[in-house]
Every structure is written in C-alpha cells, then in structure tokens.
Amino acid sequence: MSGQWWLGSSRGLATAYAAPSSTSKMVVIAVMGPTGTGKSSFIRNLTQNKSIKVGHDLSSTTTEVAAYDFVHKGRTFSLVDTPGFDDSRGNDQEIVNGIVGWLEQSTASAAKLDGILYFHRIIDPRVGNTARANLRMFRRLCGNDNLDKVLLVTTFWNDVAQSLGERREQQLQCDNTFWKPMIDQGSSIVRSRQDRTEDLTILLRVADKNHKFFTQAQKDMQNGKTQAAISAACHTASLTEQAQLEKAAQDARLAAEQARLERVRKQKAEARKAALAQERARQEVRRREAEAEAWEERMFLEREQRARAEAQRKRSQAQEEKLRRIRTGLELQERLEREERQRQARFAAHVCRNISLKRKTCSRCFERMDLRGDGLWCWRKSICELLSNFSAHLGQIAVTATTMNIIFVKYAALADQTTEQDAEIRDIRS
Predict the structure, then answer these.
(1) Distance CA 157, CA 121 (A)
(2) Which CATH code for domain 3-225?
(3) At CA 202, angle to CA 201 and CA 205, rounded to 5?
(4) What is the per-residue pLDDT across 251-277, written as a single tens digit (0 to 9) for each?
(5) Is pTM beyond 0.85 here?
C-alpha cells in the first residue's frame, strides 16, 4: 500500500502543514539537495508512483514539501521530497520556511527522522557557490550531531565515464569546504544509478540503523524558538558562513599572493646572489690569469737574464782564453828572442868584425870560413845576416808590445762592461 501526504497550495510553498502520525514501524527519510540533482526521480523510481513529476532540466518540478510512502519487506518507508535551494520558483528563504514548517509539524506529532539523503550530481565538473550555500543551510537545519545519519548520494553516474566520476567523487571527499567535514563526522557516500534494487539497498541501510532523531531545527523548536527565528537563523548562518568562507578564500588568495611575491623576492635575491658569485668568480679568474701572466713575465725575464749572463760568461771565458793564448805566445816569443840574443852573443864572441866576406879565412884571426853546398860563405851565418835578423826581431818585439797594449786596454774596458751588467742583473732580481 502506498500513500501520499504533503503541505502546500497550488502556488508553491504554503502555510498549512500535515505530518505523518508517530509510528515506530515507519521509516521516515528526508530527501534533500540542490535543484536538478534527481531527488524526485529517485523517489518515483522507488515508490513506482507515476504521479510524481520529474524534471529534465535545472528547473525545479518540486514546489512544496511532500512525503511519499510505500512498503518494502514489511517496512513502511516515507520519503520526504523537498524543493531544492536555488529553486527556480521561489527564493531560498521561502524554501527554508517551508522545510522548517514541515519539521515543526513533525515535531508536534513526535515524528522523528530515520535518516537524510543529500543529493549531488556527479556530472558537475566543479562545486559552485550555490551548491556550497545549499549545503551550509542543510547542515544548519540538520545539525552537526546528526551528520552520522546523513548519506551523501551521488547521481547521474550513467552520464559520466566511470574513471572521471570516481575522480570527482574523490575530490568531493577531500574538499574541506564541502563534504570532507561531514564525512569526518560520520556521513557516508553512496551512488545512485537509477536502479531500483540498488536504491532500495540505500533505504535498507538507513532503516537497519534503527536510530530515529530530531534535527537541530526540531530541537530548537522544542527549546522555544519560532519557525521564523529558525528560518532567519539558517539563512543568516548561511550568509555568515559564506562571508567567512569568502573571507577565508580572500585571505588564502592574499596569502598565496604574498607567498608568490615572497618566492619571487627570494628568487630575485638568489639570482642577485648567484650573479654576484659569478662576478666574484670571474674576478678571481681574471686575478689568477693576471698572476699567471706576471709569473710568466718574471720567468721570461729571469730566463733572458740568465741567458745574457751565460752569454757574457762565455764571452769572458773566450776573451780570457784569448788573452791567455796571447800571453803564452808573448812568453814564447820572448823566450825565443832571448834564446836568439844569447845565440847571437855567442856568435859575436867568435866572429871577427874585420872579416872579409870574399876571403876564406879571417884576415885577423885566420879562422877558416867553411863553404855551404849552395856556394855561399857561411860560418853558420855571416855577421850581416845576424845583424839583419836581429833588427827584424827587434821590430817584431815592438809590434808585439803595441798589440799587447791594445789588448790590455780592450780587456779593461770589457771588464768594466761586465761589472755594469752584473750590477743591472742584481738590480732586476732585487
């Protein structure tokens, strides 16, 4: 047996409410979520009630809170269909008033909920501000203490690739401003593929908990708050939370911008530091190159000085050797001349000065003059030859003495030049 009860009038959300009588055997589940997420299709598929209108675009077909009940496995399920926030036919405040009105009637009749299904389209590429505002008002109505009775239902799985849907589902679970806080407090995620058997499993999962509860809005009513106050509080809380989230997002953007600027500043500082280090490295390279060039220049000068000194030493040695040979030649000449003078002196003692070169014997001492084989008169040598040779020797001695004097003068000048070069070398080295 299936039935239907609702609140409302033909123009939309109304002021008169009807609620089911309190019964422990009835499983009451509220179906909530944004417009166009498949709430009415889900209920129609389960109840097999063809009178439930289903939209095929983002315009809402549910204009009032209505409950549809049916029996499954001996249990009566009552599915409460609610208009979505961001409804095309009414503003969010009117929708909140309608839902709170229904909750007020449920509280008066002591009808508690067994669970809440919150719908979301998996085909949506991202979560917009409207969806976040919808969820904030839902959480305010439900209360954080009841989030463990909430099932987060993703729909339209047949219209998206499995891998893409799974990635988006993972993003919803990890979004700190969407589902993650609810999951951390006990909410669960289920998938609806428009398969009645699978959808019945979702309802049985709620029913098996057998844990009825009042929402936060119902608790507020029990504490004396009026419907208007609760509606206004939900709307205000949503706006406040939205403002806080926007401020947090703005702060996050500012922090991100500051972090970016700080990274840019650090990158520029590191770039300047790297450029300074490179410049220092280039200066160090230039300094070392200059030192190497100076060292090579010093080595070149030292090698050149050593070469000049070695050449000078060799020239000095050659000159000394030449002087030594000259001295040796002079000594030999002197010795020969001395021997010649001694020989001539001996000859002079035996030759008569009055000798007649035409006679064979001396007219004074009558010593015999021998003839050589060439027919010349000879007593070894004639006195004329001796005198002639002696004069020639005297001339050679004079020439040799003059040559020696010139050599000694040149040697003295060369010694002075060598001394000056040695002094220059010592100055360069110092």
Answers:
(1) 8
(2) 3.40.50.300
(3) 85
(4) 888 899 999 999 999 999 999 999 999
(5) no
